[in-house]
Predict the structure.
Amino acid sequence: MSAESGTVPASEPNPPASPAYTRILLKLSGEALMGNDSFGINRETVDRIVGEVKEVSDLGVQVGIVIGGGNIFRGVSQGAAGMDRATADYMGMLATVINALALGDAMNRAGLVARVQSALSIEPVVEPYIRGKAIRYLEEGKIVIFAAGTGNPFFTSDTAAALRALEMHAEILLMAKNGVEGIYTADPRKDPNAEFIPEITAREALQRDLRVMDSNALALCMDNKLNIHVFNMADDSNINRIISGDRVGTLVTT
């Protein structure tokens, strides 16, 4: 209070809290782009995801994204029945390129600057994955979308997410799930008695076969001490809450 006027000076607004992480790797399934459709890309859903990423990017957080291809491959999966595994895996990688291009275009239209890098060489369409260039893009505030998995058959997009997170020196791997809050003792959509697990070690998740991600990816994170945050992508605020340091979903520690 002022001694002369007897009035209380206006308080300064609280400064925004610093993000808990400065560089993240977000893993999206291809199904995350479908919305309520049976397959393909839902424009409204993509725009919603872009809005969530933009909120985080505007805080100064560097964002890399790995995306799956299930929404595209689902439409041709019956035709792939009995196909050679390596051939089917390459088809899946190409599906992730389609998703990455769609997501990157939506981000650029929303005012973000996105770059798509592919582990498969398709240079007329997208630039190849170059680690040093990807890191520079992140440092410049660009969103980097990694397509085509690892570029090798027999490895899933989960493994690609773990690999790219480690290569980019990401501080956390965010695993987005569709309609599931995190990790449960069983599939909650099939078992009404499934119990939610707020925190678990990667080793225990492997031993209990809880399907957090494929075993190769989980072991890679465990061996390199990269924590994983599993959360529900359907909640628009979850990514922002995690970046703010809130406990959302399940934390998988290493």
